[in-house]
Design a protein that fits this description.
Shape of chain A: globular
Oligomer: heterodimer
Strand order of the largest sheet of chain B: 2-10-9-8-7-6-5-4-3
Largest sheet of chain A: 9 strands, mixed
Strand content of chain B: 25-35%
Strand content of chain A: 25-35%
Largest sheet of chain B: 9 strands, mixed
Largest interface: A-B, 74 and 77 residues
Number of domains of chain A: 2
Radius of gyration of chain A: 24 Å
Number of helices of chain B: 2
Distance between the termini of chain A: 108 Å
Number of helices of chain A: 4
Structural class of chain B: alpha+beta
Number of strands of chain A: 13
Structural class of chain A: alpha+beta
Shape of chain B: globular
Order of helices and strands of chain A: HEEHEEEEEEEEHEEEH
């Protein structure tokens, strides 16, 4: 009797399991719960500046970036320009996409969408970024149009051996520029041969803290540069996703190589002391 | 004996199911397969930039049901464009076209379905959308208005085959200015637009998707309904081209006027006899 009972139980269990597996369910319990809105974690006390690349240090020279002498000079020139009223080498001032690695600051709220073949990272900044981290086992393509965000291939890892993925290891290549590490204008090399490696994982004891250990390989650097970025999950059940329109809010006007401001009344004004007005010779010709 | 045996079987089966059953499975077989890259279906005979009604050319040919006041705005926009201006189309300044125009669409489209949200990812300016399908109510209190609006949707199984095939969406809470198309067919500046959509996938035509859009707006004499059609590209690993509006954009807006930047980096007029911008904030050159 007991033997027949056991056979029956196994048969029932098999049917129930087959029903759940046969429905082609995406077993999201296998993946870390990254749902919700992620924001840059509060930096340590004393850290200043917008989204420093290394979030544990203030921006600019305090980053102690391992730059080559040539690229350190570019950073210093960028800082000098900013001190004089310019924007330095920070391409975001022109509403260009900040690209990788800077986009993972992040400057705006971030969302992860985890699916078996791809993990999307959505950030609405200068560009309505939607990074695609392909986790379908694909090889690097032979021919890819370079982009500010690059092309990302990732792999989920179970580093603790508990049968559940906990870390997304990502590599990103195929960039275009110009790109800078952070708003100080700290430059990446103009050859755009950057490779960015990331390990993205939830904190083991705090599910509201997400880590992104990021390593940048770039010819502007004397060695690979690794930083530990951290993001904090917003507890709101229905977070608001802001819409960021650089073109709508910017008061900066670029004409040729010069940057000007738009005054409160909409007219052009200088951005630096004694800055000359723009050349209007084309308008003079029109009058003739 | 039989009753106890059956009871024991049931208890054992339930325990095993709870241990191995789908804890948090997303059953994607309940949803249409919309993976891949979608593009605007071309309509023979229709030229130029896509119109709100994709079966007609943009502008006057759309025969938009505009109130006389807004027909006059369209006429003025077209005249401004003919003279070299942008006539009511804000996208030249890298402002999102907003809804409903986003769904023309201007770039490649990807639809990502999750249980709580359907993401429509579009490569253009700021065109990507979130359609919340988690059963939420419209937010009460203040919610920041956006060009894309706030979208709530519900999946429907219209043919009763046990699989969702239609996403019914309503979008509200807009800001402006927005236009229906690049010709500058205007929406009302009160931004009280409501956009209703039925995004439908027909399993007998799996590479075709339709979006029946109805725009309710105070610039219109009546709700305006059109059907947009998208086709799926057959590429195993489609390439997603990155568009950055500010890159290579030579439009410069100063004091409500649009100018160009010439090839040699100098400011130039966009229209015949356009005066130069006011430069009174600049110091006169030292003599």
């Amino acid at each position: 009797m007991l033997f027949r009972g056991l056979i029956g139980a196994v048969a029932v269990m098999a049917v129930l399991t087959a029903t759940s597996v046969g429905a082609r369910a995406f077993e999201d319990a296998q993946y870390p719960n990254l749902k919700g809105q992620w924001l840059r974690a509060r930096p340590p006390a004393g850290v200043t500046g917008q989204a420093p690349f290394d979030p544990d240090k203030s921006w600019g020279l305090a980053q102690q970036a391992p730059l080559t002498p040539e690229y350190r000079k570019i950073l210093e020139a960028s800082l000098a320009d900013q001190a004089a009223g310019g924007q330095g080498f920070w391409p975001s001032a022109k509403c260009l996409a900040v690209g990788m690695p800077a986009i993972m600051g992040p400057f705006q709220p971030m969302e992860f969408i985890v699916l078996p073949e791809v993990t999307y990272v959505r950030i609405d900044h200068n560009r309505d970024t939607r990074r695609r981290i392909f986790t379908d086992g694909r090889d690097w393509p032979a021919d890819v149009q370079p982009s500010f965000d690059g092309y990302s291939i990732g792999r989920w890892l179970d580093t603790t051996g508990n049968g559940r993925f906990d870390t997304l290891a990502v590599e990103t290549r195929y960039f275009k520029g110009p790109r800078a590490f952070e708003p100080s204008g700290m430059p990446l090399h103009k050859d755009n041969q950057t490779i960015v490696k990331e390990r993205i994982y939830l904190d083991q004891t705090d599910a509201t803290l997400l880590h992104n250990d990021m390593t940048v390989f770039d010819h502007a650097l004397t060695r690979p540069w690794t930083v530990a970025k951290k993001y904090r999950r917003d507890p709101a059940e229905e977070p608001f996703w802001p819409e960021y329109m650089c073109g709508e809010s910017t008061g900066l006007i670029y004409i040729g190589a010069e940057m000007y401001f738009l005054s409160g009344d909409g007219n052009l004004m200088p951005s630096k002391k004694d800055q000359a007005p723009p050349d209007l010779s084309y308008f003079n010709r029109a009058k003739k | 004996m039989l009753r106890r045996s059956l009871l024991g079987t049931g208890v054992l089966a339930a325990a095993l199911f709870m241990a191995f059953g789908p804890a948090h499975a997303f059953d994607e077989s309940r949803y249409p397969d919309l993976k891949g890259q979608w593009v605007r279906a071309r309509v023979p005979g229709v030229s130029g930039q896509p119109g709100y009604d994709p079966t007609k050319n943009q502008g006057l040919a759309q025969q938009a049901p505009l109130k006389p006041e807004f027909q006059a705005v369209l006429d003025a926009n077209l005249k401004d464009q003919a003279a070299g201006g942008q006539g009511g189309d804000p996208t030249y300044a890298c402002i999102s076209p907003g809804m409903p125009r986003i769904m023309n669409p201007y770039g490649d489209m990807e639809i990502v379905i999750t249980p709580d949200t359907t993401h429509i990812l579009l490569e253009h300016i700021h065109d990507s959308r979130r359609i919340f399908t988690d059963g939420r109510d419209w937010p009460s209190g203040y919610t920041e208005a956006t060009y894309r609006g706030y979208s709530i949707g519900k999946w429907l199984d219209t043919d009763g085959d046990g699989r969702f095939d239609t996403l019914a969406v309503e979008t509200r809470n807009f800001k402006g200015p927005r236009a229906f198309d690049a010709a500058g067919i205007p929406l009302h500046p009160d931004n009280q637009t409501v956009v209703q959509e039925r995004i439908h996938w027909d399993k007998s035509k799996p590479d075709t998707l339709t979006d029946e859009i109805t725009t309710i707006d105070n610039a219109l004499t009546h709700p305006w309904t059109v059907t947009k059609t998208y086709t799926r590209e057959h590429v195993a690993q489609p390439e997603w081209f990155e568009e950055v509006c500010a890159e290579g954009n030579n439009h410069i807006g100063i004091a409500g006027q649009n100018y160009f930047m010439s090839g040699d980096g100098r400011l130039m007029p966009a229209k015949k006899d356009q005066p130069p911008p006011d430069l009174h904030y600049f110091k006169p050159p030292q003599k």
